[in-house]
Amino acid sequence: MPPSQTPTPGSNPTPGSPGAPGSAPAPAPGSNAPKRSAAERITQLFQSRYGRPPTWIAAAPGRVNLIGEHTDYNDGFVLPMAIEQRTLMAGSLAEDGGRRIRVVSELSPEMASFELDVLSPPEGTPNWWEYPRGVAAGMIEKGAQARGLDLAVASDVPMGGGLSSSAALEVATATLLEAAWRHPLDAVEKALLCQRAEHRYARVPCGIMDQFISTMARPDHALLLDCRDLTTRQVPLRDPNITVLIANTNVRHELSGGEYAQRRAQCEQAARELGVSSLRDLDLNQVIRAKPGLDALIFKRAYHVVGEIQRTQRAAELLAAEDYEGFGRLMFDSHVTLRDDFQVSCDELDLMVELAEDRKGIGGVLGARMTGGGFGGCCVLLVRAQKAADIQRYLYTSYLERTRIEPEIFVTRAGAGAELPRAP
Ligand code: GLA
Q1: What's the pTM value of the predicted model, to 2 decimals?
Q2: Does the beta carbon of 106 lie inside 6 Å of ligand 1?
Q3: Which residues contact 409 (CB under 8 A, 6 or more apart)?
Q4: Domain annotation covers residue 62
Q5: How many Å lie between the centroid of ligand 1 and the Cα of residue 182?
Q6: The ligand 1 atom nearest the CA atom of 9
Q7: Which domain range does residue 149 map to?
Q8: What CATH number did the domain enclosing 74 receive?
């Protein structure tokens, strides 16, 4: 990450800019562009930087959140799925037997190096390697017998698009360290460890959604996560007639870092003023009844969060019942309160959702909304599979025409969670 850039929730921690190697290149309209995947690049990267092949390669996916936005840090529900794009971390034990980790990224010419005995959180602006460093520190705190390592990272998770490349990097690191240090973690413990690394080492006050889905995703399933008690339910999403599209606006408004923390603080204030420990404890009628006594802005924040928590539970039921039209309507509703009440959307995201609305019904769009932290990044759409290519083309052309910005629009299946595809 360039030194001037502060990490933001769900942002990409790797240096570079959208379109740089490692992010998904802009696909031809209506298609997923073929490319050399991170899986193909990673061994070569490791070999070229360290002069030998890696022993382990771990992989962890980015994610797209279908519904349940800005609910995770309010003890609510979220319903994300893993995308097919993943971050890969390759590693081998250090040849000199030292207690040092060296790490390279395909996007950065410099090699980072840190001692395993000096792992306090950074003081200045965090650099991208603070993510693996924070994960290593967390594993050592849990009693792992740390050994020196050489590491390399390559990623296909689009950057700055709200698709959780930071969680993918953390979870890929943890997965590699589990193998290299022979210290297996329970899935919940692993997700929490990665979240803590992001809080302490990247100083991003993210919720728990991204690390959970990157750790626990199952192919062809979305994950309903109760962020209060951390229980999960896998909800099938494998109807061949239904497709998930991701439309990256390719804009990121720089306000996002501070705005996220501010929204969290406003939610905490709303809960305090409403006399509950978190907004999860309220239903929408209670919030509406309390409106006269609340500051207008605080009311709006609570209105979105409480409505969104209810919507997410309902959406999971509809998805399980294969009621895609009902599910899609809730996606549109979610966008409205994110835009008007939680105020984390932006013109480009709103435009993408409006364009999706043009293709509702016989056009094949079932639902669309902004996804992730907001202020740019991606929209997620649920569409009829046979219309997906038309919709992609329409969104691509219309968005480009209206904004002069080239979007990236791609299809994704619900992918797998973290794994160790290569082990000795
Ligand atoms: C970012 C954070 C998540 C979550 C979303 C908003 O992606 O990392 O924890 O809060 O924003 O839903």
Answers
A1: 0.92
A2: no
A3: 27, 29, 245, 246, 247, 248, 392, 395, 396
A4: yes
A5: 31
A6: 8
A7: 38-237+418-422
A8: 3.30.230.10
